[in-house]
Amino acid sequence: MTIELPILITFIGYLSLMMGIGLWAYKATDSVDDYILGGRGMGPGVTALSVGASDMSGWLLLGLPGAVYLGGLGEAWIGFGLVFGAWLNWLFVAKRLRIYTEFTDNALTLPDFFEKRFEDNKGILKLVSAVTILVFFTFYASSGMVGGAILFEKVFGLDYTLALIIGSTIIVAYTFVGGFFAVSWTDFFQGCLMLVALLIVPVAIMSQPETQVGLENIDPKMLAFISDDTTVLGIISLLAWGLGYFGQPHILSRFMAIGSASEIKVSRRIAMSWMLLALVGALATGIAGSLYFAAEPLANPETVFIHLAHAAFNPWIGGLLIAAILSAIMSTIDSQLLVCSSVITEDFYKKWLRPQAQSKELMLVGRIGVLAIAVIAGIVALNPESSVLGLVSYAWAGFGAAFGPVVLLALFWRNYSRNGAIATIVVGALTVVIWKQMSGGIFDIYEILPGFILATLSGVIISNLQAPSEAIKQQFAHFEAKL
């Protein structure tokens, strides 16, 4: 694929718009509260699309279409699990987390919320949760950087390493400048572009005569949700992706930032509508790619959307649609880097080094933290054989197993204790890490499921052995009274 001037101009124009939003947000960011949670003033529409865009990432336009391109609609079980998990997260977690984090002295991060929820004066719970976030987000952010490198490599013919450096620099720039305002508003525009691209590309390809002929002769296995190769363990593993939503810090932070709990219902409807349409588009893109490139299979299945957009439209429109991939990547990495920045600022620097630090100092530390995490994630992404879907699945499992049970138990169980929360995080994270190293038999189940189950059991057992104080129980009762 050679560099075409219209595509290059389209990319530059799009990136200029994103940087413009970042600079606008920079002027609107006056405090660390603004930088981390946008002053808890996000509207329902911005919140909904920001959740969707930061959630789906390059996986939606690279990983999932690539998986369907190879394996057919049997890969859609991931989508079923994600839709159900996202809906449950909006329905049961969003409102409670928004109210409880403000109730606990305006907690700005998950570790901060956990510390205040369990009155952990020693800071052990905050430290454990903060370290876990930084470790798994390093892998998560690196997946986005791999996606960005693949995009620039394929579209502009760049060397992988050079493509990685350019893509990562662009992504980091506006996160560094604008904080939560920039991330949320760019996510809003990126979410719109992603949805349009995922709906237009497969329709354009499917309407071509040669594709319609291919559809008549397609292998029935490609259109079957269950085939001879489908296993019960495989379906369970794909559906288990839905458990991850309860523990993703970059998604949960959107719930914490919405203007008021009363706006969550509207936001949920917008978010779920966007998600359903986007997933249908991603599945259709994979099938369209398997038909269009049946004679000459792609070397890298995860580039199927890029090639289809380039084949179906003139360079101007194709460039804009390909920019949607950059949108997906940017919308997730910026959210992840911002969460890492807030953890470094609030949960390490302010907690352990400079409790008296003021907002300007904390924002500077947060921006430096963005650069530091980006560099480490970039080093992890240097391997050109890295898989976007592989890195995402590992980080998604880590967060889902380590934090999902903690969030649910903290929001719904009065007798949940600090030691129980620590045990939950440690057991969940370690189970994912260890399970990932095993193979064969039961170990073929996606590691999030055993991690989630064992983490929940450990939290319940430890809390029953050592119950929380009466003060913590009373605090929970006051919170429930506000629902």
Automatic annotation (TrEMBL):
**According to its UniProt record, where is this protein located?**
Cell inner membrane; Cell membrane
Q: What protein name applies here?
A: Sodium/proline symporter
Keyword Transferase assigned: no
Q: Does the keyword Ubl conjugation apply?
A: no
Q: How does it sit in the membrane?
A: Multi-pass membrane protein
Q: Which Gene3D superfamilies match?
A: Sodium/glucose cotransporter
Its principal location?
membrane
Instruction: Name the protein family.
Output: Belongs to the sodium:solute symporter (SSF) (TC 2.A.21) family.
Q: What does this protein do?
A: Catalyzes the sodium-dependent uptake of extracellular L-proline.
Q: Where are the transmembrane segments?
A: 6-26, 76-93, 124-142, 162-181, 188-205, 225-246, 274-295, 315-344, 364-382, 394-413, 420-439, 445-465
Classify the source by domain of life: Bacteria
Entry keywords, A to Z:
Amino-acid transport, Cell inner membrane, Cell membrane, Ion transport, Membrane, Sodium, Sodium transport, Symport, Transmembrane, Transmembrane helix, Transport
| Reaction catalysis annotation | L-proline(in) + Na(+)(in) = L-proline(out) + Na(+)(out)
One Pfam family recorded for the sequence: SSF
